[in-house]
Design goal:
heterodimer, A: alpha/beta, five-stranded parallel β-sheet, 10 helices, B: alpha/beta, nine-stranded mixed β-sheet, six-stranded parallel β-sheet
């Protein structure tokens, strides 16, 4: 089977505004050495997909830096490979000189890329899908059932948070035919089938719905396109299991980072045979533990120097922890330097943050204390 | 359109490294793991790319498979180039003859065509068994300034150890007037590091002459350098200051690994100004459990540590289970130290499993000797592997009978 991959890199950016102020959702750091897009990209590569388009909108410099030529994912190809698809405004035609706002408008912008591809099928995913999933299985099911569109879904607890609308519930019958699709509206936590925002379609079908949407001036992929086509076209649900997380708030980011301290989660994300998660190689030296280091229940990348006490933490590459310092329940991103005799609890530091000697900082799981990139406290 | 290269590096990676015993049974010495995530060859190759040398020939002969696979197209070192880059150079069958590489000089002699293709001014000769970070560009600059025919990198060694090395004697301007290979009574403490810069024309003429000399061992140290010195060529020593270690023996390889540890390690690989590159394994970050104790050690990606690790260098994908102890040891990759097991003062090769409550080696503080454990072994539960030994499948069977070689 020949499949084209498309990743939306700026989706849900507003959910974690602190982290996406200077980057795309796709390049949000996660799990000591990864960026969120590594999961979608690795899943595609591990499923034999060798042509991937990444749709960007704004702030995509960090993403381009991360992806480079794509060689770390084996996507630096003469034919196919990875391609960044930035937005563009045509010089003459546009009466509204603005870039797209929705998923559907983004697809309209790359319609020529979709038309120019030779692949028979397309898989579309968001960038904040933290999972290790065999995409070839869902594609195979799509082919076997002869569906027009197959949507990945997973049963999980949903709570509607104010202002976020990315939780879409999927209703389907025992044959897997989708019967309804709607934004989840219950305030109570509910166990339901969540749309994982991973879609498989025939490329021609995608082309058709995008051109049809242009003709009708549709805006929303879910409400205007999918909802209208239910019952008319063959839209199937595909049930997934295994670990799956998306990032819909800072608290959620904190929680799904801390999930990695659980051996089961690590096994489901990183321990799957033949499906490694790839990322940009930084060539840091191994992590140094000094004679004074105390480390308990931590996930740690290479290049760290630990002289103090670290408990229940996620340490990215090149983090330094000083003497007499205690860091608990925190996420310290790349090249964070924590001085001597510091106390940190429930803190998230962005890249290259510095915490000076003797500082005491604490947040809470529901509202982690955030230190911006390059900031010195 | 062919561009000239100013300097081509030739890396001698064909040696067996027989003094590393079990470690080089299946792979050439330059492919032996070092420092958790590296292999010895990463050091000279990274030095090349950091020094701006982008054409590197790797001369292989003994067990080249692991090395070939590891180097691949040179991508991890940025040596996948349109023109130049890294190339493996095994012995080959020619029109008139086919020969193994008979010595270091002969290996270069047989690849003169490769060098000629790039028409370089200088040829840098390196060996694949040293751990050091060195800017070859500075050395080449010095070579040019001296208008030298050959420049040999030297490092000061203690007088007591000088008789293990090739020793240079130089005048004040660093021009060499004497060279002795492993002298009994060394006249100086300047030891050759096995890093040579030659002007290409001179090198070729001496290699051709040496090839015709039937009594020659076809070796740089024994034949080519003395011949050039005798003929009065312009030969200079280039003094290198910094960390350098020959890791040709089990104990020196263990020591070099230990030099990575401490608050001010002798060899600090965290220094980003001169990175050492290696091929990545796409391992996840390492996890340190609730019950773990890690002191004065180095741990890398893919590890799961639940036990105690003291004064040790742990390679990728290693598991140290709850209640297990690793002390004063160097573990290569993908090793499992099971519950209650202990590894003292040992170097353990890749993929070995130490069974539950087994003990390997003896504590260094209690007078234990360095133990070397081979790759892919299954050390059974509850057995004791004596210190100071070379542990292979066979020795395991001798120790534990049926249980030892499960």
């Amino acid at each position: 089977m020949s499949v084209l991959g498309i990743i939306f890199s700026n989706i849900h950016d507003e959910n974690v505004a602190d982290l996406t102020r200077l980057r795309t959702m796709a390049s949000v750091p996660y799990g000591c050495r990864y960026r969120l897009i590594d999961f979608a990209l690795s899943n595609m590569v591990n499923s034999g997909i060798s042509r991937v388009g990444v749709i960007t909108h704004y702030n995509y410099q960090s993403l381009m830096d991360h992806i480079g030529s794509g060689k770390d994912w084996d996507l630096a190809r003469r034919s196919g490979g990875i391609q960044i698809l930035p937005p563009y405004i045509t010089a003459f035609a546009s009466s509204r000189p603005e870039v797209y706002n929705t998923r559907l408008e983004a697809l309209m912008g790359i319609v020529s890329y979709i038309q120019g591809a030779r692949e028979e099928y397309v898989i579309l995913t968001d960038c904040d899908v933290i999972c290790n999933m065999d995409f070839s299985a869902i594609i195979q099911r799509h082919i076997d059932t002869g569906a027009d569109c197959t949507i990945a879904t997973k049963k999980s607890y949903l709570v509607t948070k104010s202002g976020t609308s990315n939780n879409v519930e999927l209703f389907y019958n025992e044959n897997g035919d989708v019967t309804d699709i709607a934004e989840h509206n219950s305030v109570e936590p509910a166990y339901c089938n969540v749309n994982l925002n991973i879609y498989v379609m025939n490329r021609k079908y995608l082309e058709e719905i995008v051109l049809d949407s242009v003709a009708h001036g549709y805006k929303s992929f879910t409400k205007d396109v999918l909802a209208r086509r239910i019952g008319r076209d063959k839209i199937k649900a595909y049930e997934c299991d295994g670990y799956f997380a998306t990032v819909d708030s800072m608290a959620e980011y904190f929680a799904c980072s801390m999930d990695l301290l659980n051996p089961g989660t690590r096994r489901e994300l990183f321990g799957v045979a033949d499906r490694p998660i790839f990322t940009k190689v930084r060539n840091s030296a191994p992590t140094q533990y000094s004679a004074t280091a105390v480390t308990k229940n931590c996930l740690i990348a290479d290049g760290c120097v630990i002289e103090g006490t670290v408990e229940n933490c996620i340490l990215f590459r090149g983090v330094k922890i000083g003497r007499g310092t205690t860091v608990k329940n925190s996420i310290l991103m790349q090249d964070t330097v924590v001085g001597d005799n510091v106390y940190l609890n429930c803190v998230i530091t962005d890249k290259s943050a510095v915490v000076r000697d003797g500082r005491v900082l604490s947040g809470h799981e529901s509202k982690p204390y955030f230190i911006e990139k390059n900031l010195t406290v | 359109m062919i561009k000239r290269k100013e300097c081509v590096a030739m890396l001698l990676a064909g040696g067996q490294g027989s003094r590393l015993y079990l470690l080089t049974e299946r792979l050439a010495k330059p492919a032996v793991p070092f420092g958790g995530k590296y292999r010895i060859i990463d050091f000279p190759i990274s030095n090349c790319i950091n020094s701006g040398i982008d054409t590197v020939g790797v001369l292989t002969q003994y067990q080249p498979l692991a090395l070939n696979e590891y180097i691949g197209n040179g991508q991890p070192w940025d040596l996948d180039r349109v023109y130049g880059g890294v190339m493996m150079l095994p012995p080959y069958q020619g029109l008139k003859r086919a020969d193994w590489y008979k010595g270091t000089a002969n290996a270069i002699y047989q690849n003169m065509q490769f060098i000629e293709k790039y028409d370089p001014e200088y040829v840098l000769i390196l060996s694949g068994d040293h751990i050091y970070r060195m800017d070859y560009a500075k050395m080449i600059k010095e070579h040019k300034r001296n208008k030298a025919d050959c420049t040999i990198a030297v490092i000061d060694v203690p007088l007591a150890e000088a008789s293990r090395f090739g020793i240079m004697s130089a005048r004040e301007d660093m021009s060499i007037y004497d060279f002795e290979e492993k002298p009994k009574n060394p006249k100086s403490t300047m030891a050759s590091m096995g890093v040579y810069v030659f002007s290409k024309e001179k090198l070729f003429s001496y290699l051709i002459a040496d090839e015709q000399d039937e009594n020659s061992d076809k070796d740089f140290g024994k034949n080519v350098i003395p011949a050039m010195l005798k003929a009065g060529e312009r030969m200079f020593a280039y003094r290198f200051e910094g960390y350098w270690k020959d890791v040709g023996t089990v104990s020196s390889l263990w020591e070099a690994n230990m030099d990575l540890l401490g608050d001010n390690p002798q060899l600090d690989l965290n220094d980003g100004s001169w990175k050492i590159y290696s091929r990545s394994n796409a391992y996840p970050p390492h996890y340190v459990g609730e019950s773990a104790v890690i002191k004065n050690s180095q741990v890398t990606e893919g590890c799961e540590i639940y036990g105690t690790v003291i004064n040790s260098v742990i390679g990728g994908g290693v598991t140290v289970a709850r209640g297990a102890t690793v002390k004063d040891s160097v573990l290569f990759d993908n090793i499992t130290v099971s519950e209650g097991a202990s590894v003292y003062y040992s170097m353990v090769d890749s993929g070995t499993v130490v069974g539950k409550n087994s003990t390997v080696g003896k504590d260094k503080d209690e007078g234990g000797k360095l133990t070397l454990v081979g790759s892919g072994l299954n050390i059974a539960d509850g057995i004791s592997v004596p210190d100071g030994e070379l542990i292979s499948q066979k020795t395991l069977a001798d120790i534990g009978g049926e249980a030892g070689a499960k």
